[in-house]
Specification:
Layout (H helix, E strand, L loop, with lengths): L2 H5 L3 H9 L6 H8 L3 H13 L3 E6 L9 E5 L4 E8 L3 E7 L5 E8 L6 H17 L5 E9 L24 H9 L3 E5 H12 L6 E7 L3 E7 L2 E2 L31 H5 L1 H10 L7 H9 L3 H25 L3 E5 L6 H14 L2 H4 L3 E4 L6 H14 L2 H8 L7
Parallel strand pairs: 3-6, 6-7, 8-11, 11-12
Antiparallel strand pairs: 1-2, 3-4, 4-5, 8-9, 9-10
Helix pairs in contact: 2-4, 2-15, 3-4, 5-6, 7-14, 10-11, 11-12
């Protein structure tokens, strides 16, 4: 008897097989689980009656009658995935199939405080779902631009987030919305979004979020690797060799974030007498081949690559994806690549894919929303829902 036939019996487990694409028909479910056709039919009928799956279309025949195709039913249930940045929040609504049905970007300021920002984001999410017929939000997830304790959802000494340190943002989010919630670090969420966008083909993936700050998320065997407290991959406070003696918020000097981030480049250009206010100004200068802006972007990429080289040598991933606004600058990407090919072992880089994120601006919102869907659609929760009688109207 296989492990599957020993453990996969409940309707929730059958739903998981359909949702992950391992099963497309009742025959597939019977083959994978070892359950009888009648038992599979009973479970499928339960899932169909409660609106979790549907049968449609015609599958490929293997000599007999063509089977009907099983698929997750999206219905009107969605989760809101929110990627919170320093000055804006990206919101995406995901159905049960993890497809994005609507998205928007709203302006916020972290200086307004936790309760105010969460309230603004929730209002925007409600307005977004109100524009879509028949949809309702069943849960909300938010990624934050700072280290998050994986055990408590509290922020741990975040940079550029005054008043947020030590706050249990998940508790605030749950209190404001009254919905199931999930909190994660933004780089972790973007790594998940990138992994989904790639179809789950690269199970060893490093994602770098390079914008006003710099963060890193790691996918190990298809799941986020968080470490003991959830700060695995946080490269922002790695001190660089021969870096300028810039004091970091952590009290040390020469940390990656204060010498290679977008904010650091803006400050460096200002000191050089160049008229810039934001990272977007820097990127615009680089597009016009401004020598100082281009030079600083390439240097920032090289310093980021210097830190990543250790991770690549140690972890040996299949792919390195660069996201965030800095990754839109060719000079930054070139600096990263040059450093990696100089400092890494050839065996670590000869098959390594290095490129700009395929998931784009929605990576974080999609990733954190998908994480919440995974939790809400856990087989045990599905089985619990099936025990609730259907309301006949």
């Amino acid at each position: 008897m296989t492990p599957a036939t020993q453990t996969v019996h409940s309707a929730g487990e059958l739903f998981r097989l359909v949702r992950t694409g391992r099963a497309h028909s009742r025959a597939d479910l019977a083959r994978l689980t070892g359950l009888s056709a009648s038992t599979v039919a009973l479970r499928v009928d339960e899932l169909t009656a409660h609106g979790f799956i549907e049968e449609n279309g015609q599958g490929e025949s293997r000599g007999g009658r063509r089977p009907r195709v099983l698929a997750v039913k999206s219905g009107g249930s969605v989760v809101a995935g929110v990627d919170l940045g320093e000055s804006h929040a990206t919101i995406a609504l995901l159905d049960r199939r993890a497809d994005i049905v609507a998205s928007t970007v709203v302006q916020v300021s972290l200086l307004d405080g936790v309760e105010s920002v969460v309230g603004q984001v929730w209002e925007a999410a409600q307005q977004l779902v109100g524009q879509e017929d028949g949809l309702h939000i069943d849960g909300i997830a938010m990624s934050l631009p700072g280290p998050v304790d994986a055990r408590t959802s509290r922020l741990l000494a975040p940079m550029r987030m005054p008043g947020w340190n030590g706050v249990d943002v998940g508790e605030v989010l749950g209190s404001v919305t009254g919905l199931p919630y999930l909190i994660d670090n933004d780089a972790n969420a973007m790594a998940v979004g990138e992994y989904i966008e790639r179809g789950g083909d690269e199970e060893q993936l490093v994602f770098v979020k390079a914008g006003s700050g710099i963060g890193c998320g790691i996918i190990l065997n298809g799941s986020v690797y968080r470490g003991f407290r959830g700060v695995a991959g946080d490269i922002s406070h790695v001190a660089l060799h021969n870096a300028p003696p810039v004091i970091c918020s952590c009290g040390r000097v020469g940390c990656l974030d204060v010498v290679a981030s977008g904010a650091a480049i803006v400050d460096a250009l200002k000191e050089a007498g160049v008229s810039v206010e934001t990272l977007d100004d820097v990127l615009a200068l680089a597009q016009d081949a401004h020598p100082k802006a281009t030079s600083l972007l390439r240097e920032a990429g090289a310093r980021t690559g210097e830190v990543l080289a250790t991770i690549i040598n140690f972890f040996n991933p299949q792919a390195l994806a660069l996201g965030g606004r800095l990754a839109t600058a060719d000079a930054f990407v070139a600096g990263v690549r040059q450093a990696l090919f100089t400092l890494c072992l050839p065996m670590s880089t000869d098959s390594l894919e290095i490129g700009v994120s395929r998931a784009g601006a929605l990576a974080g919102a999609r990733g954190v929303g998908w994480e919440l869907l995974e939790r809400m659609l856990d087989p045990a929760r599905i089985d619990e829902d099936l025990r609730v009688p259907i309301q006949v109207r």
